Amino acid sequence: MVAIHVTSEIKPLKKVLLHRPGKELLNLTPDTLERLLFDDIPFLPVAQKEHDRFAEILKENGVEVVYLEDLMAETISVSPEIREKFIKQYIVEANIHTERWKKILFDYFDSIKDPKELVLKTMEGLNLKEVHVSPENSLVDLVSESDKLIIDPMPNLYFTRDPFASVGDGVTLNKMYSITRNRETIYAEYIFNFHPEYKGQVEKWYDRYDEFHIEGGDVLNINETTLAVGISQRTCPEAIDGLAHRIFKNPKSKIERILAVNIPNNRAMMHLDTVFTQIDTDKFTVHPGIYGELQVFEVTPKGDDILVKEINDKLENILAKYLGHPVTLIPCAGGDRIASEREQWNDGSNTLCIAPGVIVVYDRNDVTNKILREQGLTVLEMPSAELSRGRGGPRCMSMPLVRED
Ligand SMILES: NC(=O)NCCC[C@H](N)C(=O)O
């Protein structure tokens, strides 16, 4: 089987990457919520139960589920050098810069021998009181509190959609918008560089060391030759320019055009997949907030450069043009403004399509889900009381690695 192969949003899903939320959620506090991009603190045991049900629904429907933490544990088990390189890089990226603390923390992480336990610990964050230090050796240690996080958790890791995005037989390895989420991409970097199944198998259309930010939630595979990318809070036009140059220049890419869709810059519409997702060959769920004419740019190759053309139109017309047939937009919660705003906040339009017309959704969006059933979709509901507090739905919580052609 190929390592990565995704040319659509709806073709049968064969293999998907998830991350089971872990103790990183226990290191969220009211003071850090905003910086760490959460709106509330999920109750971990319930969040895990909900996530396990998500994975079970996928498996019941023939999808192979792999976990980020397992792939990463396998990656650092490839050789002691890779493990050591990872720990050192992780510490620097966690903003630890003094030689003394780099050494203390290297020894701490290096002492965790089980690879998966080590990976999970790097995700969880670290409290000063977990590390044994001799405070008499340093003024800094004596003046600081003993019960504080010295390494932040990465609570958004269960949104595997964002740090990298599968496009064709490659990935965009993303430079993220926020400091907290930028740390997450280290895992994909190591997996794609060193994991035996992925090393040398995956084209990189964008890199985490590039200058401008782009996130996977903004990347939608319309078909084999057309990619839609949101210009949003999380993805800037410069990143799309850079991606276009790279992807058009690479003979292994089949992408012939990128549609850059300008969406409002706010938290309720943070990514393109927060405002619309494809659910069938001719159907999309949408946030009613993007009805009407949208600013859209068609980016195509022109010699060694790119050509950008503004093609503003209604979403349904743009999609119909590139898919080659009419499409129906189903608004979140129908036309009811209050229900729609409520359900949109809990990702009512953010569905994971696992085959044409078959979608995984949050159970809490009951108004939207009823409408989707009436439209003939197979709606697989997952529990969502706690997971939804992170502001992402089933599409955000999954990264397709392989979809059938
Ligand atoms: N694709 C998505 O819309 N992902 C949801 C990400 C939620 C996360 N709390 C964030 O703010 O990045």
UniProtKB/TrEMBL annotation:
Q: Name any Gene Ontology BP term.
A: L-arginine deiminase pathway
Instruction: Look up the EC number in the record and give it.
Output: 3.5.3.6
The catalytic activity, as recorded, is:
L-arginine + H2O = L-citrulline + NH4(+)
- A single MF term (Gene Ontology): arginine deiminase activity
Q: Which GO terms describe its cellular component?
A: cytoplasm
Q: Active site at which residues?
A: C396 (amidino-cysteine intermediate)
Q: What class of enzyme is it?
A: hydrolase
Q: Which UniProt keywords apply?
A: Arginine metabolism, Cytoplasm, Hydrolase
Classification via Pfam families: ADI
Where is the protein localized? Cytoplasm
Q: In which pathway does it act?
A: Amino-acid degradation; L-arginine degradation via ADI pathway; carbamoyl phosphate from L-arginine: step 1/2
The primary site where this protein sits is cytoplasm
HAMAP family in UniProt = Arg_deiminase
The record's similarity note reads:
Belongs to the arginine deiminase family.
How is this protein named in the record? Answer: Arginine deiminase
Species name: Anaerorhabdus furcosa
